[in-house]
Design a protein that fits this description.
- The chain has about 325 residues and is of the alpha/beta class.
- The chain is about 30% helix and about 25% strand.
- The longest helix is centred in the middle third of the chain and has 19 residues, at about 110-130.
């Protein structure tokens, strides 16, 4: 039997959701109905709500946004869940999800903290923990990371994830000079970076800085793609001291553009590997393992960023007021 639930509803792609009600059908076989505690407004959630994400082809309006969150199962367990495969998202009182897409939270976990940051943390966690020839600490060899788009929430959390997984040197690139300066000021031992590149300085200065600071990079976490990626890619490839050393470029986001034309010789002249990291290619077993590992660190607050909690009933105002200074999370 269906249930009338309060929810945030998108009636037109590109518009902010409005608070209302909709009929939630009973869970299907293999699903469980979760009572939602909190759900974060990630870039993925925004893209799906805007109708611009590659997974939106089968979505019909009105849409209940959201892709993951924290809630309670009928048996009382508190879990983190993903609703990527569900027709309706978790910006609602209840959501139906596959039982296999839930991970029980440790007793010391703050549900709002986990709901706010798990999606942002998984972006870098998957990219780094599944990279080629990677071993986890304490067996990991030190490696150097270049984060393109470091000033966003996922990029800033990526600094902490990279350090946790064994990165010895991190260079961050972005346009927000204030955030870049703060990441440099706090230092490598406190969630900061070793060096910065300001993408607003113009292509020539960006190439010079990348050549000087990131030539020995082992892995790039790219949240931007588009023109900034091409500028940085060219600078790094030309500055490499050896053609044999593996360079892994992990494409995670496309905040600067979804397309990038590359000269073919760039892919052949060096040991250069480009791959994507996202939800699509991951098996349930892989996602469950890495989510479980990540959530342990979120529970311990060894991975942490500012969180802005907003009641779901204020979803429209909260959505429009989100300035990216802290992860916005809707709470019920």
């Amino acid at each position: 039997m269906s249930k009338t639930v309060d929810a945030a509803l998108v009636h037109r792609f590109g518009d902010a959701p409005v608070y209302g009600t909709y009929e939630l059908p009973p869970p299907k076989e293999g699903q469980v109905q979760v009572k939602v505690i909190a759900s974060g407004l990630s870039q993925l959630a925004k893209a799906r709500a805007n109708g611009t994400h590659y997974s939106c082809g089968r979505m019909t309006l009105p849409v209940v946004p959201g892709v993951d969150g924290v809630g309670t199962l009928p048996d009382g367990k508190t879990v983190f869940f993903t609703a990527f495969k569900s027709k309706a998202g978790p910006f609602a009182e209840y959501v139906n999800v596959s039982l296999e897409d839930t991970v029980e939270l440790p007793a010391n976990a703050d549900p709002i903290h986990v709901a706010a940051l798990a999606n942002a943390g998984m972006a870098s966690w998957l990219a780094l923990s599944r990279r080629r020839n990677h071993a986890v600490p304490p067996n990991a060899k030190p490696f150097n990371v270049f984060i393109l788009g470091v000033t966003g929430m996922s990029g800033r959390l990526g600094v902490q994830v990279a350090r946790l997984l064994g990165a010895s040197r991190i260079v961050g690139a972005g346009r927000n000079k204030a955030v870049l300066d703060e990441l440099l000021k706090v230092g490598p031992g406190n969630g900061g970076v070793d060096d910065i590149v300001c993408l607003g300085d113009g292509d020539d200065k960006v190439k010079e800085a990348v050549t000087r600071l990131a030539a020995d990079t082992d892995v790039i976490l790219d949240f931007l793609w588009g023109a900034p990626a091409k500028v940085c890619m060219e600078a790094i490839l030309k500055a490499r001291k050896t053609d044999e050393k593996l360079l892994e470029w992990v494409q995670i986001g496309a905040m600067a553009g979804a397309e990038l034309a590359l000269p073919a010789p760039w892919l052949r002249a060096q040991n250069f590997f480009i791959c994507g990291s996202g939800l699509g290619p991951q098996s349930n077993e892989v996602m469950h393992k890495h989510l479980s590992d990540l959530i342990v660190h979120l529970a311990e607050k060894s991975l942490s960023l500012p969180v802005n909690a907003v009641p779901l009933k204020d979803c429209e105002a909260g959505w429009n007021a989100d300035k990216g200074d802290g992860r916005l999370v809707f709470v019920l």
